[in-house]
Amino acid sequence: MSYQGTSNPIFILGDDAQRTRGRDAQTSNIAAGKAVAEAVRTTLGPRGMDKMLVDSTGEVVITNDGVTILEEMDIEHPAAQMLVEVAQTQESEVGDGTTTASVLAGQLLAKAEDLLGRDVHPTAVVEGYAAARDIGTEAVRDLVLEGELDDDLLRTVAATSMTGKGTGDVNAEALADLVVRAVRHVETDAGANRDDVRVHTQVGAASSATELVEGIITDTEPVRDDMPRDLTDATVAVIDTKLETRETSADVEYNVTSVDQLNAALDAEESELRRYAAAVRDAGVDVLVSQKGIDDRVAAFLADAGVLALKSVKKSDVVAVANATGATVVGDVADIEAADLGTAERVHVERFGEDELTFIEGGADAAAVTLLVRGSTTHVLSELERAIGDAVDVVVVALDEEGVVPGAGCAEIVVADRIRSEAASIEGRAQLAADAFADALDALPRTLAENTGMDPIDALVDLRAANESGRAGLITSGERGEIADPVAHGVLDPAAVKREALASATDAATMIVRIDDIIAAE
User: Fold this and answer.
1) Catalytic: 123?
2) What backbone torsions phi and psi does residue 449 show, to the nearest 5 degrees?
3) pTM tops 0.70
4) Which residues partner with 361 through β-bridges?
5) Which of 105, 259, 340, 522 could form a disulfide linkage to 328, CB 3.0–4.6 angstroms apart?
6) Is 150 a catalytic residue?
C-alpha cells in the first residue's frame, strides 16, 4: 500500500498485506456475520434442533445452547468473531437469550446489506438502529408484568429457559423447582448472589437424581482413610499455606557428620510438623480445608486428633467453603483465632462410583447451596449442566433487575410494532433503518413458528393480529404450535434478557456495518 503525494509514493504497508475496501469489505463482513447467525437459527425455541460439534481430537459436544455452539465452532473471520462476542456478552450479563441475540444480529446485518444496496449511508443505518433499539428497550419495560415475583412465576421463568434443552429423564418443571429453591435459599435483602448457587456434576445416575444440597460440595477427598467421614456441628478452618517442612530460600548445604546430628535434624523436623497439627487441634478445628499441600506425617497427626483434612483444594472451592461457613482464609495455622473459624451443621464424605465427594452443609454466618446434577452419560450431564446454569441465571436476573415479560415471540412482535409506529418521528434515511430493525425482529417469531412446524408467514400474520387485541405468542402444544396467551401457558422471560439482546445485537451489527476497510497482514 502506498500514499501518492506531490513527490514519490510512500509505502506504509508490507508487500504481503491484503486490503479490502468499500462495498467489498462490507459485503464480506456481513456475509460472515449472517453465516454465523444462521448456524444457530434452527436451535431457537422449544422445538429447536441440536448441533453436534466434533473437535480435532474427536471430542463431541451435543447442544442447542447458542453460546456453546459458537464457542466450540472454529471461527476465524474477524467479523464472525463479533457475533461470538454477542453471545458471550449475553451469557455473561443475563445468562440466557444467546441464540436470540445472535439471530437478531444476523438479521440486522441482512437488513443493513439491503439498505447499503439502496445507497443508504452506513451512518444513517447506525443512527436508525440505535433509535430503534431505544424504542424497543422502552417497549420491553412497558411489557413487564405487574405484581410481585412469587415462586410460581419464578418456576415458570426457570422452566421456560430450559424448554427445548436436554434434561434427561426429568422434566423442566421439576428442575425449575430445585432452581427456585436454591435461589431463594441464598436470597437476602440485597438480592441473590449468583455465585452463592453452585452447580456440581456427577455422572452415573439418571437426571432425576439431581438434588439440592444446602452447602458446598468438593471433589476433594480426605487426606487419609482413617480420618472421620461424618461430623456434625463441625468447626471449620480454611488455610492457603503448606503444612510441610519449611524450605530455606537460600542455597545452603548442610554437613551432617554423625548419627546424632541426623537424628537431631529429623527430630526438629518432626517437632515442626507436630506443631502444625497441635495448632489445628488446639484451635478446636474439626475440619481443615487447605488450598495447598499437607505432609503425610501432619495428616497422620491430624487423623489421630480426629480432624478431617482436605488438601490441594481448588481455589474456587476454598473461597466457597469460607463464604458458606463464615470462615476466614488464613495463611498460617499458628495465627488461627476463634474469629477465623466457620461452622457447618454437617460434613460428610460420600462415594459415587469410583469418586468420593465431600459435603459441607449448613453455615452459621453465610449461606450457599449446590445443585448436585446427575446424568447417565457425560453428554447428557453437560447439556443438563448448561440448562440448569441458564435457569439459575434467569431467576437471579428476574429477581434483581426488571421483572418478567411474555415469551414465545410475543415480546418481539410487540416491540417490532412499537418501533414501526414510532419510526415516523425519526428524521431522514435513518427512518428506513428503524423500519428494517422492526423487520429483523419479526424474524425471531417467524423462526419459532418454522421450528415448531407452523407455516412461518401465516403464523406471523396471525400473531400480529392477535396482539392487536390482546396478548399472544407461539405456544408449542404436543407436535404442533398454536397462537395463545404465553402468560396463561407459563411462557415467561426476564425483561433483562430481551433488553440485553436488543443492545448486544445492535452494537455488533452497527460495528460491522461501519467497517469499510479491512487490512490483513499475511
Assistant:
1) no
2) -65, -40
3) yes
4) 215, 346
5) 340
6) no
